[in-house]
Amino acid sequence: MRSKFEALSVAESKTAFTFKPAAVCPKYSFDKHVEKKLRKWERISEMGFCLVHAVGEHALYGSGLFQGRAQEILSGWDVISTSLIRRTRTWTQVNIRSQNPKISRLPMRPMRMYANVALILQVPPENILGTFPEDVYFPTHEPAKDYKFAQAILGDGSTTTHPVMGGAFTKIESPLTIMEKTSRGKPKENYNEILVVTRPHVRVHFSETKKVEVKGIIYTAGSTGLSRSDAEVLQRLRELNPDLPVEEA
Fold first, then answer.
1. Measured between alpha carbons, how far apart are the two ends of the chain, in Å?
2. Is the pLDDT reported for residue 234 higher than 70?
3. Could you please report the per-residue DSSP string of 45-58?
């Protein structure tokens, strides 16, 4: 008597023992549009861009960044505001060898920062909470108690894309889109706001957040040079972070 397996035809046996491949897990997000855009944030250094966290003169009085090394301080925070800017030297190098006409078409005027001194950060894409071509007044003042901070991030469920008008702080755009929209803003206010989760092992998207690394200090002196307060901010950051390189924007 033939067994059940012996009775199967060749075609039937192939069908019976064909295993479907497991679904491919996303690198960053199950939302394919978010996944595609976050993958582009992997390559911002190749475009001559970087993310910076501005340190204004107001930070001289009470900011944790003046109580120790920036790397250690930022790792203990939750969400920070950063800006996407061009690094002058790397931007020039990218422009020379770039085959991407979109990069070359961006205005050459330097992108403004919220303050004249900032920390250069290396941010894993999974740590990016939201991207906006303008200041969206992120509510860092909201307390974590009663989920007020989380509710502020997620908004009120409105479909509007502008957080200030009731939307969520979780909109993701590609870096080139952010730079293009920012460059069309008012000359004196053309800085963007990229919200970054600095605490590791948190799930913002599909994969857990990783360590955000502080790579340097950057400043812009302007036509009149650094003000006394900006010079003090720069000097104190250099004293607390002697291993960080310093460059002019």
1. 84
2. yes
3. GGGTEEEEEE--GG
Q: By the 8 A CB rule, do 51 and 215 touch? A: no
Confidence of residue 159 (pLDDT cuts 50, 70, 90): very low
Q: What is the pLDDT of residues 98-107, one digit of tens each?
A: 888 888 888 7
Write the CB contacts of 93 (distance below 8 Å, at least 6 apart in sequence). 48
pLDDT tens readout for residues 121-157: 999 999 999 999 988 877 664 444 554 555 556 555 4
Cβ neighbours of residue 138 closer than 8 Å, sequence gap 6 or more: 79, 81, 163, 169, 193, 195
Share of the chain above pLDDT 90, in %: 36
| DSSP line for 42-107 | GGTGGGTEEEEEE--GGGGTT-GGGSS-HHHHHHT-SEEEEEEEE-HHHHHHHHHH---HHHHHS-
Are the beta carbons of 133 and 178 closer than 8 angstroms? yes
CA distances from residue 143 to 76, 139, 152 in whole angstroms, order as listed: 16, 9, 10
Q: Are 208 and 159 in contact (CB under 8 A)?
A: no
Cα separation, 102 vs 153, in Å, equals 31
Across the range 214-219, mean pLDDT stands at 95
How far is Cα 203 from Cα 83, in angstroms, rounded to an integer? Answer: 22
Neighbouring residues of 227: CB distance < 8 A, sequence distance ≥ 6: 57, 116
| Locus of tokens 């549009």 | 33
What are the φ/ψ torsions at residue 14 (nearest 5 degrees)?
Answer: -65, -40
pTM of the model: 0.80
CB 60 within 8 A of CB 66: yes
